[in-house]
Amino acid sequence: MIESIDNYIQLAILGICSGATFYKAITKQRRSWVLVTLFYVAFFFGSLYWELFYMFKGDTPAKFYVAEFSWYVSYMFLFLFLKYQKDPDTPAPRCRIKWLIPVFAGGLSIYYITFGQIVSNITSAILMSLVGMEAVKGLASGNRRMKRVYIVTLIFFFLEYLLWTSSCLFEDGSVLNPYYYIDILISIVLFVLLLYAQKALRDEVTE
Amino acid sequence: MNYIENVYICIAAPILVAILAMSGAGSPSGGNKTLAIVRGNRRRVMVFLLIGMTICLLSSYISTFLALILEADRQEATWEITPLVEEVMKFLPILFYILVFEPDNREESAVNIMAVAVGFATLENVCYLTANGAADILTLGVRGFGTGVMHVVCGEIVYIGFVFLWDEFWLRFAGIAGLISLSATYHAIYNILVAQDGVTAWIGYLIPMLTAVFMLHLRRRLRIAREKSSS
Which chain A residue's Cα is nearest to B68? Predict the structure, then answer.
């Protein structure tokens, strides 16, 4: 029951975000909006596929990584969005702290690999590291327009890892399982990310 | 038992003959005939149509092979393996064409992915007909439009990458890989829905048609916006 509620909340929020960004991408016709749209649509498709598979088969997809590919692709689009938001006139500052991100992601992925799915865990660690590093680099660069987007992206990054870790520690489907609440929190964070991305892209035009 | 190779030969033979006949009529004397086949506009569409059918045949082999390796049953293969295999395979000829022949108009060339999708859907539908009969016109009509349009929509999703994400190397590489994955998920969602009974299947069949109508509207809007900005 709680799993379905969690999934429906996430699908509803992602559906709204996908629709809103899609509308912006059409009206503005800018690459930044296309990338944000693709991030939300990919995340939405992955979650929708997962939910439909679970609904009609009563089990999670186990033979191939269709939903996982979609989620990884969404991380990749988020990374590309952050990467192409840099101010071209500002030189990139040296930022050693960003290397803590792959250390953190790599360490946890080694822990997850003990539960199986080697390729999937390595892929997610690489892509999430890219997202996290880009957000840390962005914060260090002092890009004020994107500051909040970088902060929310980092919150998203850590919440995703919290979610995956909780799925390893708590396997029951009860209401007390923190996994579902973290997942709902991620959905809210994704919505907040859209609001800040919208503001940042609006400011980009006015600057 | 569905003899997909026999169906393929039967459907592909006239197209192949037409391509060869056209190449004879239009190629310059002493020129590279293979290149001339691909470069001629009308012939090019025929070539991609035939390639689409060939890709359909090859995809069925690869999907079956992967299903055997992964010990997947028919449902798991249709919902998990086939969509990804088919979408990757459909993209490869266009990638080859753009990288090897380096056409002047990239966007225009990317439209050829639609011809591949149509060829693919044609052979798939003919195979469905030979396996299930052609008595029920309503089901066949819905299936024809649903599956056919779904393949075209998936092609259009990848086409977005050629239009918006081709400028820089990383964007091109990651963006198009991402869009292929996106179209595969769309395809998989469609496969899950149409495998059900009743309203769910109808929703599944309707989704690609609605998406196609929406994309048509979108293209028109984009064209108008471009014309306005250029004038």
Answer: A63
Q: Which residue has the tokens 């014309």?
A: B227
Of A48, A72, A80, the CB nearest to B189: A48
Q: What ipTM does the predicted assembly reach? A: 0.86
How close does chain A come to B59, measured CA to CA in Å? 16
Query: What CATH number does residue A169 fall under?
Result: 1.20.1070
- Do residue A63 and residue B186 have CB atoms under 8 angstroms apart? no
Angle at which helices B169-194 and A66-83 cross, to 10°: 150
Alpha helix stretches (DSSP H) within chain A: 2-28, 31-57, 66-83, 100-113, 118-141, 147-169, 178-206
In A, which residues are within 8 Å of B66 by CB distance? 64
Q: In terms of CA atoms, which chain A residue is nearest residue B169?
A: A80
What is the number of domains present in chain A? 1
Say yes or no: B210 contacts chain A, CB-CB below 8 A: no
Range(s) of the domain holding residue A102: 2-206
Which one, of B115, B108, B78, lies nearest residue B93 by Cα?
A: B115
Distance from CA of A68 to the nearest CA of B (A): 10
Q: How many CB atoms lie within 10 A of CB A107?
A: 10
Q: Which of residues 45-84 of B touch A (CB under 8 A)?
A: 66, 70-72, 75-77, 79-81, 83-84
pLDDT tens for each residue of chain B, 231 residues long: 568 888 899 999 998 988 888 765 555 555 566 666 556 677 888 899 999 999 999 999 999 999 999 888 888 899 999 999 999 999 898 888 888 877 776 666 677 888 898 899 999 988 888 888 878 888 788 888 888 889 888 888 887 777 777 777 777 788 888 889 889 999 999 999 999 988 999 899 999 999 988 888 887 877 787 777 777
Model confidence, pTM: 0.87
Chain A CB contacts of B76 under 8 Å are: 62-63
Q: Cβ distance A198 to A142 under 8 Å?
A: no
